[in-house]
TrEMBL record:
Required cofactor(s): Mo-bis(molybdopterin guanine dinucleotide)
Domain 4Fe-4S Mo/W bis-MGD-type: start-end pairs: 19-77
Protein name according to UniProt: Nitrate reductase
Residue ranges, annotated region (Disordered): 350-370
């Protein structure tokens, strides 16, 4: 360093009058990268930067979203006071006024329309403590059966598929540290390079060590670029493709018969079914050549270890549960699970995509993955909560179905915490119209989202910087997110808001917590003995041990790094293989003369979900300022489109207008639109209301559409 540079840094250092460091975790994806916000004050002017902090999963790395996360948390548009809508205008009010209005409207509704008329819509971006508490709030505070959450649109198929096959659902069966040592990897409908960027070095190391990587995606992405073989299949054809892979594995006798015989049931039915399928037909259905299917099957089958990762590409389908189970059949038939460097990963999405699906936010679920219809489970939780089992409601309906219940006037009040369903749900025009019909809508958010704008009351929530609690990351590792940044204005933590409302509803005695840790202590008990057992985890341990992988039934247990080494979680200890024909249980959208193209949807690196947070961040928004449609130039020209001009996309459900972008690598029958934008750029206006019958997942990944140029 030169003298001049040294002087510059010394001067700068002297000017920094104050530096504060806040430990936290990224508010975005399931990697839950640990990080620090650094606040520097120079002559009363504050500046901020976020840096990574070492931990076992992300090892100190951050992606661009994490580095810029503080830009939305510190944004001037944060809601800082409770707001009540009067004559179509939001007016700031005190907390006590807002709470009194909520008490009155919810009790009035429940008196006239019944207890179940008030519903709760939660999120997997809140902490475990908050997700747990929201479930308790619905059942004990409001005594309603109607609670579900945004994870239904996200983890639904993976969770149901894994529960059916393995008897338990923890996204990753192994830690990320096994990835570099595996010999073959299948990435099915996952774009980790853009969606969980800090996981990439594990896959890059695997490649350096000689692993063969197969990607399955209708588009070329930053992820498919690391693959040795890219199967560019037709959207929605993954069941057929997985069946085709297994057919070849059986034909080439690449099976692990010992494993099949001792550890699984159902193989014979699966074998009969896939053997009866014609490879030629599978090639036609999937748009992947017979050669490529064979190549992929041989590569995976012949290696001694292998891992399969799935994400929303194969899961957000009307046959998403079946698709997951078909890929799990491949793992089981080749014995690539429950041993080193072999296993499954359903790559979770939201920060707490794993934990928030375990402790009672789902319509049919109680904490610790217990079932709300199981008498033993009901009485265990009723005891923990200090209520009578008979007072515990039964199961309600799934996320999207709640909007149908609103339309049918069965639900007339809704409490939404940390979600923007008008943008994220399928059939978005219908969802918006349904929310407008409510007698009372209360939204808890950091910003005036498109959903919050429809509310009668909006409550200001804290950001990740201000809200301590645990999050369970992509590996199933429970991590303690520290949070000491001061809350702006009259903002409150989500858990505190839940307690405050329960209290005005006369249920104070069940919600007396004064910290997140106190809630966690109750969650430990509530999960004890359940499939997702957190009993052995404490805040003290989390501080010392940098996260613990569940199940962890005892405080002396170190947690579970690899699942299924000896047995699966079904009563007989075996995994259940499952035969599915190539046809879905309900018909999927297909190309027709009127709607000749297949639309698929997803994400870009710089934006997060409905964009409410990332669009506030100048550094991220600048990378993608508006929605767009990726289309092959040959297809685009057939329909009279021009590059970078506006295109109208129409489906049976609705119409949107976005920018047209050429892609030489996307399938010619497919177009792609990300879902981070609202109103006329909201791609969910095009997605239909059909749901996977097993898990109630919408078919976000295939719609039939037509495209035309927008002429001014
Ligand atoms: N940058 C960024 N990162 C995120 C998020 C974000 O919004 N932005 N969201 C987080 C959340 S909540 C989630 S759930 C995850 C989602 O993570 P991913 O599931 O990886 O993301 P998607 O872009 O939805 O879809 C993945 C891929 O599936 C492909 N695909 C589409 N249709 C099909 C199909 O029919 N078959 C197959 N095989 N592939 C298909 C798409 O082309 C896409 O590349 O990411 C998390 N991380
Ligand atoms: N077409 C299409 N649609 C999809 C998908 C797709 O791939 N394609 N993916 C689906 C998936 S995987 C998901 S996960 C869903 C997500 O769907 P949403 O849950 O609707 O998405 P978010 O943008 O995360 O909405 C979170 C809202 O909560 C606010 N918020 C953020 N942090 C906090 C907090 O700590 N407390 C509170 N109270 N509020 C907070 C944000 O400002 C934002 O308004 O979308 C689904 N929709
Ligand atoms: S978005 Fe995901 S990968 Fe990026 S910094 Fe945040 S947690 Fe890490
Ligand atoms: Mo998600």
């Amino acid at each position: 360093m030169t003298e001049l540079m040294l002087k510059y840094f010394r001067d700068k250092q002297q000017k920094v009058q104050k530096e504060k460091v806040y430990d936290t975790q990224c508010p975005y994806c399931s990697m839950q990268c640990k990080m620090q916000l650094i606040e520097q004050t120079v002559v009363s002017r504050k500046s901020y930067k976020t840096i990574g902090k070492d931990n076992p999963t992300s090892e100190g790395r951050l992606c661009i979203k994490g580095m810029n996360a503080h830009q939305h948390a510190l944004h001037q548009d944060r809601i800082k006071q409770p707001l009540v809508k009067i004559n179509d205008q939001f007016v700031p009010v005190s907390w006590s006024e807002a709470l009194e209005k909520i008490r009155k409207s919810f009790t009035d509704i429940q008196k006239t329309d019944g207890l179940d008329a008030v519903s709760v819509y939660g999120s997997a971006s809140i902490t475990n403590e908050e997700a747990y508490l929201l479930g308790k709030f619905a059942r004990v505070g409001l005594q309603t059966k109607h609670i579900d959450y945004n994870g239904r649109l996200c983890m639904g198929a993976a969770a149901t598929g894994a529960n059916q096959t393995f008897g338990i659902d923890r996204g990753f069966t192994n830690t990320v540290h096994e990835i570099p040592h595996t010999r073959c990897i299948i990435l099915a409908g996952t774009n980790i390079a853009e969606c969980q960027p800090t996981i990439m070095p594990y896959f890059e190391k695997a490649k350096e060590n000689g692993a063969y990587i197969i990607a399955i995606d209708p588009r070329e992405t930053a992820t498919t670029k690391i693959a040795d073989l890219h199967l560019k299949n037709k959207p929605g054809s993954d069941v057929a493709l997985a069946n085709g892979l297994l057919k070849i594995i059986i034909e080439k006798n690449l099976l692990d018969e010992g494993f099949i015989n001792t550890r699984t049931t159902g193989f014979e039915e699966v074998k009969d079914l896939v053997s009866s399928l014609e490879l030629k037909e599978i090639a036609e259905l999937t748009g992947v050549s017979e050669d490529q299917i064979s190549q992929a099957a041989s590569a995976f089958g012949q290696e001694e270890s292998g891992m399969i990762f799935t994400a929303r590409g194969i899961e957000q389908q009307l046959d998403g549960t079946n698709a997951v189970r078909c890929f799990l059949n491949i793992l089981l038939a080749t014995g690539k699970i429950g041993k080193p460097y072999s296993g499954y990963g359903a790559v979770t999405g939201q920060g707490n995509g794993q934990g928030a699906r375990e402790h009672g936010q789902k319509s049919d679920q109680l904490p610790g993955y217990r079932s709300i219809e199981n008498p033993e489970h009901r009485s265990y939780i009723a005891d923990v909560w200090g209520i009578e089992e008979k007072d515990l409601p039964r199961k309600g309906v799934s996320a999207y179905e709640m909007f149908e219940k609103i339309d049918e006037n069965e639900i007339t009040g809704m409490f939404i915490m940390c979600s923007n369903p008008v943008v994220s749900n399928p059939n978005a025009n219908f969802v918006k119209a349904a929310l407008k019909k409510l007698k009372s809508l209360v939204v808890v958010d950091m910003f005036m989202s498109e959903t919050a704008k429809l509310a009668d009351i909006v409550l200001p929530a804290s950001s990740y910087l201000e809200d301590e609690g645990t999050m369970t990351n992509v590996e199933g590792r429970v991590m303690l997110r520290e949070a000491s940044y001061p809350m702006p204005g009259e903002v409150r933590n989500d858990w505190k808001i839940i307690c405050d409302i329960a209290s005005v509803l006369g249920k104070e005695q069940y919600f007396t917590y004064t910290s997140a840790e106190e809630i966690f202590e109750e969650l430990r008990l509530a999960s004890r003995g359940g499939r997702a057992d957190y009993y052995g985890i404490t805040y003290d341990r989390l501080r010392k041990e940098q996260g613990i992988l569940w199940p962890c039934p005892d405080t002396t247990d170190k947690g579970t790094e690899r699942l299924f080494e000896e047995s699966f979680a079904h009563d007989d200890g075996k995994a259940k293989m499952f035969a599915t024909s190539n046809k879905s249980d309900i018909p999927k959208p297909i190309q027709s003369e009127k709607f000749p193209l297949l639309l698929t949807t997803g994400r870009v690196m710089s934006h997060y979900l409905t964009g409410e947070q990332t669009r506030k961040s100048p550094s991220l928004a600048a990378r993608n300022i508006e929605a767009f449609m990726e289309i092959h130039p040959d297809t685009g020209k057939t329909y009279g489109l021009k590059e970078n001009e506006l295109v109208q996309i129409e489906s049976q459900q609705g119409v949107i207008i976005v920018r047209c972008v050429w892609s030489n690598t996307i399938r010619k029958d497919t177009v792609f639109v990300p879902f981070h934008w609202t109103e006329t750029q909201n791609v969910n206006r095009l997605v239909s209301n059909e749901l996977d019958p097993h898990c109630k997942m919408p078919g976000f990944k295939v719609s039939a559409v037509k495209v035309s140029a927008v002429t001014s």
